[in-house]
Amino acid sequence: MATQFSLDNRAQRGFQNASKYDTHRPSYPAEAVEKLLTHLGVAGQKNARIVDLACGTGKFTELVARREEEYEVVGVEPHEAMREELVGKKLRGVRVKDGDAAHMPIGEGWGDALIAAQVNMLL
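^ that's the sequence the OP posted. Answer follows.
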């Protein structure tokens, strides 16, 4: 699917080898994930709906998808190769969409929490 918006060329080139990025990018500490989900009010909330903005290859998404709450997650990512890497993981309860913070293909009012675990801003 073609992106409806412009992704900076530096990001387009820099993340092209999404598989290598995913292999070498560290994950998040379990304690940090728990604290964040608790702060957002979704820890322990069965079937909560979470938007994972700029989800990349899904390092954070994987941790959320494995939880016992059985979250419904929509990952939003503008980089095609990064999205494809995440889609290939076939995570339970996760849909992946093309978009960015200004163009999220999610209906208004959908979601109990929005997370941007790590976002790179190119100015």
